[in-house]
Design brief:
The chain is of the alpha/beta class. It has helices at 46-60, 103-122, 131-141, 143-147, 155-164, 171-174, 189-195, 217-223, 237-244, 298-309, 314-319, 360-384, 402-412, 425-436, 443-450, 461-487, and strands at residues 2-8, 12-19, 24-31, 43-44, 69-76, 82-84, 94-95, 151-153, 168-170, 180-181, 186-187, 204-206, 211-214, 230-232, 235-236, 253-257, 261-267, 279-282, 288-294, 330-332, 350-352, 391-395, 415-419, 453-457. α1 (46-60) crosses α5, α2 (103-122) crosses α3 and α13 (402-412) crosses α16 (461-487).
């Protein structure tokens, strides 16, 4: 049988066709626009997601026996606010995960409602990108639109709704809304009251591998599918990527170098760090995970290459970098503010340490190292909890860079396992669809059978020591310049 994984990203929807032994038959990507109507705002039109997803499915399955399509699963950008009225029409453009307009609402939740209460209600504190602050922003600034809300959903769940007609979400994605009681896997009545919404406006909750329904008959006819194609709930992009890299079960780790960057640590039990520097979320395997998220990772390198150096030769630029661990230039990777562990939407990117002999290569290297140092900030929080990690999987666009993987391994002092498929969320979505359709008994079984490590990047003692010294300098920079960010 064949399974479709849909990775609904920020810049494009990527679709993947996988068979029952994990072989990828085809990958299709369809782009759509991203809108910045005001400084710090970030929006998209949900109709663009759906339109491009349907076109992508047609292209993806054009050369296969469509009668063998058994299920569709998802990985999707998290935290976005999608609101529909009673006619199922989108009320306003979706407010995305990297939108920073909710500074006041985030402060209200953390400082007035209080971090301790939020952590008790949801296992997390408020971050500007989370969904609940967006709802409060809409309530205050767009009261007419707020009064029309009939359904509140997350981006990937809009696709699931359009494909199946079922109003659903999964626990991993819902964890990032600041509306879910993560420990007990139910909507938090206290948070619904704070936001002025009802449980009836929120979707039904499922495990990521649960079948929520089947494809709508008219859409099945349009696509040439049988009406038995199952729609599986899917997961937030990071949980889906973790499934796709085999990061399931106790104490496994995955680093994602996508538009945003994450360090993801799976756990069989629920846990929260004392300062809520890491997110405590449900995992797509039915258990839990801790996650540190930085808002700009591979996007830092893309910005540097595209907008500043104005070159498309990413590989060639990195080939000129040879003096690892000896760079005197540092880069703060906060182009969109920062989430973990600083929770500072006003933070901004910065270079420091340049001199007359600073080269183009030094600055390119600083960008790659700055992202690695930022991820290590979250790893240090996990280590402070007594979590011992020796190795990590890696995925995302940035993981295609051999140099970046080497930097990650030595900055973090971890063995970095490279897997056969680097498709992350899309592959995870297809795996979840296969589990939902009964191909595998559990997510753990699917991961064990389908995910294959093809290379391990080992840290070297001398380079680890050099990067340790550099990291200790890096971690002093943000506290020193934070007051300036507040003024700017």
């Amino acid at each position: 049988m064949l399974y479709i994984g849909i990775d609904l990203g920020t810049s494009a929807v990527k679709l993947l066709l996988m068979d029952e032994i994990g072989k990828i038959h085809k990958i299709v990507s369809k782009e759509y626009p991203l809108y910045f109507p005001m400084p710090g705002w970030s929006e998209q039109n949900p109709a663009d997601w759906y339109g491009q997803a349907v076109e992508g499915i047609k292209e993806l399955t054009a050369d296969c026996d469509r009668s063998k399509i058994a299920g569709i699963g998802f990985g999707g950008q998290m935290h976005g606010l999608v609101v529909l009225d009673e006619k199922d029409e989108v009320i306003r453009p979706a407010i995305l995960w990297n939108d920073g307009r909710t500074f006041e609402e985030t402060e209200y939740l953390n400082d007035v409602i209080g971090r301790e209460k939020l952590s008790a209600y949801t296992a997390n504190i408020a971050f500007a990108g989370f969904t609940a602050p967006k709802i409060l922003w809409m309530k205050k600034h767009e009261p007419d639109n707020f009064s029309r809300i009939n359904k509140i959903m997350l981006p990937k769940d809009y696709l699931a709704y359009k494909l199946s007609g079922v109003f659903c979400t999964d626990y991993s994605d819902a964890s990032g809304m600041l509306l879910l009681d993560v420990r007990h896997k139910c909507w938090s009545k206290e948070m619904l009251e704070i936001c002025g919404i009802t449980e009836g406006q929120l979707p039904c909750l499922y495990e990521s591998y649960d079948v929520v329904g089947t494809i709508k008959s008219d859409l099945a006819a349009e696509l040439g599918f049988t009406e038995n194609v199952k729609i599986v709930a899917g997961a937030g992009d990071n949980a889906a990527a973790a499934v796709g890299t085999g990061t399931v079960g106790e104490g496994m780790c995955n680093v994602s170098l996508g538009t945003s960057g994450t360090i993801f640590i799976s756990s069989s039990t629920f846990g929260v760090d004392d300062h809520n520097a890491l997110h405590s979320f449900a995992h797509a395997d039915g258990h839990y995970h801790l996650m540190g998220c930085m808002l700009s990772a591979a996007s830092c390198n893309k910005w540097w290459m595209d907008e500043i150096l104005r070159t498309a030769e990413y590989k060639e630029e990195q080939e000129k970098i040879v003096r690892l661990g000896e760079n005197r230039v540092f880069y703060l990777p906060y182009l969109m503010g920062e989430r973990s562990p600083h929770n500072d939407p006003k933070a901004r990117a910065a270079f420091i340490g340049m001199s007359m002999d600073t080269t183009r290569e030094d600055m390119t290297q600083a960008v790659l190292e700055g992202v690695a140092f930022g991820l290590r900030d979250s790893l240090e929080v996990a280590r402070s909890l007594g979590i011992h990690i020796e190795r990590t999987k890696i995925c995302g666009g940035g993981a295609k860079s051999a140099l970046w993987k080497k930097i990650i391994a030595n900055v973090m002092n971890l063995k970095v396992d490279v897997i056969e498929s680097e498709e992350g969320p899309g592959y995870g979505g297809a795996m979840l669809a296969a589990v939902g359709c009964g191909e595998f008994a559990s997510v753990e079984e699917a991961a064990k059978r389908l995910v294959k490590v093809v290379e391990t990047v080992e840290p070297s003692l001398g380079l680890v020591e050099k990067y340790e010294e550099s990291y200790q300098k890096f971690r002093k920079i943000y506290p020193a310049v934070k007051p300036l960010f507040q003024e700017m």
